[in-house]
Write a structure and sequence with these properties.
Helices cover 66% and strands 0% of the residues. The chain is an all-alpha fold and 187 residues long.
Length: 187
């Protein structure tokens, strides 16, 4: 594993208060207690963090796309209201004057005086795309929040393993924890 700080190391640095470079080196070296069980747990925790980080980024991208979609829908609605209030005297594209007959058709038959499209859409038909966009956004916000919570949980679990790596090595049974020769008790 590289000792260059990654986004994971940066997040662990925030949690542990250790510099990201130190976290990266510690995880790469195994720290003070590189037991096979601890190494396995760290490897699993790092893989889990990577998966959850990818899920969170994907959820965030989806939410951002849904926000853009809602903004587009809202802007279309605003434009529709604005343009419905206009009384054009000519076609905005070719400047051909709009006849009185077309204006009468617009009032009586709900046909656009410019392009003759049907203008009789109900309020619910107009609102449906925005409602759907709002529902999609709410769902993607919830998914992003859930993904972030799971990612933060994985970070805490990994930070706990980093803390285990920084603990001094535990003496094995029969070792003298002080490092000095054991007194001779054979008197």
């Amino acid at each position: 594993m590289s000792t260059r700080p990654s986004p994971m190391h940066e997040r662990l640095s925030t949690i542990t208060g250790m510099p990201a470079q130190a976290v990266a080196r510690l995880l790469a070296s195994g720290g003070n207690s590189p037991t096979p069980d601890l190494r396995r747990r760290i490897t699993e925790a790092e893989r889990k963090w990577d998966r959850l980080d990818q899920l969170h980024r994907s959820a965030r991208n989806r939410r951002q796309a849904d926000e853009r979609s809602l903004n587009d829908s809202t802007e279309r609605d605003v434009a529709r209201v604005l343009f419905h209030g206009l009384e054009p005297h000519s076609c905005p594209r070719c400047d051909t004057p709009i006849s009185e007959q077309r204006r009468r058709e617009e009032r009586e038959n709900h046909r656009c005086a410019v392009c003759t499209s049907d203008l009789s859409a109900t309020a619910s038909e107009v609102a449906e795309p925005e409602i759907a966009a709002r529902l999609r956004l709410a769902a993607s916000e919830a998914a992003e929040t859930t993904a972030l919570a799971r990612l933060r949980g994985a970070e805490v679990a990994l930070a706990e393993l980093v803390a285990e790596l920084t603990e001094p090595p535990r003496p094995r049974s029969g070792d003298n924890p002080t490092g000095t020769p054991a007194p001779d008790r054979r008197r």
